């Protein structure tokens, strides 16, 4: 089912939580809404669900204007971070609950469907356990099975793995991605975790202050961040004070292309992996402040000529010590006007 938001705005009292958002989510895609806390992700999801209604704009499910359709008639399945399972019901009963409420299936059919869904979420055999007898990750898989039980045309997931530890989250997102390939239901996934969005989604929609600031595939948004906000939000970014002159950004003697940018003050951004440490040669002069050893690299903290403290990832076996002077060789960078 394709979902379209057309110029949707939502204000709470005087606070504009979502402003003029237009977004098409093609059928069968897994799209992540990514943004800092308060950027409007949950409000957008709740409007798609029918839990909130926009002040302005329309929401379409396929060709149908769903803006004023009630939640139970939208055919959406949800999983929320804190959408707790019913503690007094077994895993199977939790999954069966929505099917029973909807009617139309016999008891035996419901039992059979619950068993199938347990298998889909790879929890075969755990149907008789109670929620407090399974792990947090397993509980969220049960919550997903419960959402799938009503055969939704749209799945809405709001930080579903937010309360779990990092290793479990990583496993669950790989698992969810595989499940989506098997069952490509149109899915909107809200997260403030960049890595989660980039790992999981076909497309990432980045929000800030209630508006979309960029959308694209994970490759597009990471390679061509549209603004300094996106550059900084998607991962560690070093910034150097620069001056643009004649289509080139200048940091001291170092120059980097800045086609199309007007002359004036700017910042050059480079990620830690886009800087290499060299004894000499073209680059930005710097001095090593600290070397932090990581399992698969060395993180060098250095002070650049202009005074900025920057970080770069050096190879594991690079011989480098505090106080050493050299240059930061830049392999990739983005320049944004100030
Ligand atoms: N019912 C409400 N009444 C008043 N303000 C609200 C309400 N719901 C949300 N807001 C405000 O709207 C803004 C957007 O909230 P929303 O929950 O959509 O953000 P979010 O990006 O999902 O944030 P988080 O990651 O913290 O959940 C926030 O500033 C929030 O305080």
UniProtKB/TrEMBL annotation:
ABC transporter domain segment(s): 3-234
Keyword ATP-binding found: yes
Domain of life, per lineage: Bacteria
PROSITE patterns, A to Z: ABC_TRANSPORTER_1, ABC_TRANSPORTER_2
SMART domains tied to this protein: AAA (SM00382)
Gene Ontology molecular function: ATP binding
Keywords from the named record: ATP-binding, Nucleotide-binding, Sulfate transport, Translocase, Transport
UniProt similarity note: Belongs to the ABC transporter superfamily.
Protein name, as recorded: Sulfate/molybdate ABC transporter ATP-binding protein
């Amino acid at each position: 089912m394709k979902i379209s938001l057309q110029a949707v705005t939502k204000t709470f009292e005087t606070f504009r939580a979502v402003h003029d958002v237009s977004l098409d989510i093609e059928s069968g895609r897994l799209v992540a809404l990514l943004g800092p806390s308060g950027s409007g992700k949950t409000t957008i999801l709740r409007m798609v669900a029918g839990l909130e209604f926009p002040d302005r704009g329309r929401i379409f499910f396929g060709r149908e204007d769903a803006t004023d359709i009630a939640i139970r008639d939208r055919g959406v399945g949800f999983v929320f971070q804190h959408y707790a399972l019913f503690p007094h019901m077994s895993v199977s009963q939790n999954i069966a609950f929505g099917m029973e409420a909807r009617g139309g299936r016999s008891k035996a059919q419901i039992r059979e469907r619950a068993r199938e869904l347990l298998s889909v979420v790879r929890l075969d055999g755990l149907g008789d356990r109670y929620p407090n007898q399974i792990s947090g990750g397993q509980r969220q898989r049960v919550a997903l099975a419960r959402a799938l039980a009503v055969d939704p045309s749209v799945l809405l997931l709001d930080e579903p793995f937010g309360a779990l530890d990092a290793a479990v989250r990583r496993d669950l997102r790989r698992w969810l991605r595989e499940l989506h390939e098997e069952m490509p239901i149109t899915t909107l996934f809200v997260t403030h975790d960049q890595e989660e969005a980039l790992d999981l989604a076909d497309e990432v929609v980045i929000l800030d202050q209630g508006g979309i600031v960029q959308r694209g595939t994970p490759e597009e948004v990471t390679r061509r961040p549209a603004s300094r906000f996106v550059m900084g939000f998607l991962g560690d970014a070093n910034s150097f004070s620069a001056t643009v002159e004649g289509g080139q950004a200048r940091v001291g003697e170092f120059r980097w292309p800045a086609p199309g940018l007007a002359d004036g003050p700017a910042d050059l951004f480079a990620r830690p992996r886009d800087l290499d440490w060299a004894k000499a040669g073209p680059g930005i002069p710097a001095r090593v402040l600290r070397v932090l050893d990581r399992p698969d690299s060395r993180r060098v903290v250095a002070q650049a000529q202009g005074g900025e403290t920057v970080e770069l990832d050096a190879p594991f076996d690079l011989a480098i010590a505090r106080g050493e002077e050299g240059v930061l060789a830049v392999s990739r960078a983005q320049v944004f006007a100030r």
